[in-house]
Amino acid sequence: MGVSEKNLAIVNSIKQTDLNSYKALRDLLDMAKVIADENGDNDLTYALKITSFIRVKVPTLPVSVGMNELYWEALKFEAPHRFESFLLYMERKRRPSKRFYQPRMKTLHVVAEDLQDLEDGKLDFYGLSLPPRVGKSTICIFFLAWVIGRRPESHNAMSGHSGILADRFYTDVYKLTTSDEYTFSEIFPNVKKPQTSSDKNELRYDEIESFATLTCRGIDGTWTGAVDISSDGYLYVDDMVRDRTESLSPKRLEGRYQDYLNVLVDRKNDGSRELMVGTRWNVMDPLGRVETENKNNPRYRFRKIPALNEHDESNFQYDYGKGFSTEHYRNMRKKLDRNEWMAKFQQAPFIREGLIFPADELNYYNGVLPDGDCLKAAACDVAWGGGDSLSMPFGDLFGDKNDGPVYIPTWIFNKGDKYVTKPLVVAKTLQQQPNMMRFEANNGGDEYAESIDTMLQEQGFKTNITWAKASNQIGKMAKIIQYAPDIKRRFYFLKPELQDEEYKAAMEEMCMLTQVGKNEHEDSADGLVQLLQLLCGEMYAKCEAMERPF
């Protein structure tokens, strides 16, 4: 049954009044409480829309004691039902500078919304990857406290790489749900203080249930027969990989994944949901394995927020001096091995074994080209969507075509459609003025090339433009591996600090390319191969079996 016609009429009547007044907003809040008590979930949804309006409206009005109390009262009403409201109201008594969520809200809001979707049943699994010490574990501890308040009779379990980590989670959840510093008892007044078992790291908020409401235990602890995850409960896994050393061992990673399946997942009942958090050290870590196996499953969501955004600025510069500045992260990038930086801070996990273009094996230059004549060229690997990027490196060849150095002054690397990329190609071509250009003709690349040729001629620029289909005599990866030694020996790339966003993105993709395992994209390396083929020439020999003539 929906909202009663009487209450709906009252709400509409209130909305016709001055909604900038305390009285109108107070009447709306009181009515929301009445509506929520009437007919269950349908009315609750409508009531929460009303309180959400109040919560957003109040901060826009002149500050007063009454308005401040109204804001907190609306949050308290929402807190049992909306995770973000729970986060905010839980810390009402704390000074703003001491609060966890409010200073981090700008970045972690999307995580709070994801966790809301998980609890609302829109997801079965949520994977979260953030840099170290930015609050990923803490927001999940708050989430478990919220779930406990909503369903104290449910059975939930938390695990990590060690018992020490589990001890910390046990202590933190206990503090959130019992300390007077937080408002858990106001939000969930009917939830009793837990029975504790610190030697087993168990918290029981329901005396009747056989299993604990929350069990915190390391992966090496006792699970069989001692832990249960109910159909309305959660398995929360945090940092399965202990450290960098463990991440470099394929055997130990495989062992961790099998422990996860046979020890942790084994305790789930049908309907149990999962929350997995961790530093993405390696594509073969447990979180990476789950992501690969469920890449196209809409019930699985994987959230990755890197330390530095696409503008090379910190995503975690929090209020009150919390978090980490852009300068801090840039300094860390200079100090760390590139692959470790990309994995630990940028959430781009790696495989060291089998990397085709390790960043420290490439040549770099400071943007100043050598003196003398050069042959200028560009090769374009055209993309038509599906997550692929148009890759078009421009190269300047000095000296012998088969042995001279090739400098890469600029690089178009863009996921946009043809209406976005064509103007970029034309603009870069007019800027660099290559002597020759080649486009891969597969899937309409020839038409793309003809269009670019026409657009350039309209600008009064002529160059040698050709297009050719990729040979079917050799696969793309085999071709990349074949040309990789020459690319690493002859090509010179701009120093990282001189690269623009697209250049940097192309380099990042190239430096993660591996001949072991699966690569999501190979566009950047394929563009370089085509450029080298254009500069040096390319010949294919085709052999056919025939009957001997004598």
Portion in beta strands: 5-15%
What is the CATH C level class of the largest domain, in words? Alpha Beta
Question: Roughly how much helix do the residues carry, as a percent range?
Answer: 40-55%
Overall CATH architecture of the largest domain: 3-Layer(aba) Sandwich
What class would the helix/strand composition place it in?
A: alpha/beta
Low-confidence stretches: 539-546
Short structural summary:
With 550 residues, this protein is of the alpha/beta class.
Structural commentary:
The protein is built from 19 helices and 15 strands. With 550 residues, it is of the alpha/beta class. It folds into three domains: 1-78, no CATH class; 82-347, Rossmann fold, CATH 3.40.50; 359-536, Nucleotidyltransferase, domain 5, CATH 3.30.420.240. The longest helix has 19 residues, at 101-119. The relative contact order is 0.08.
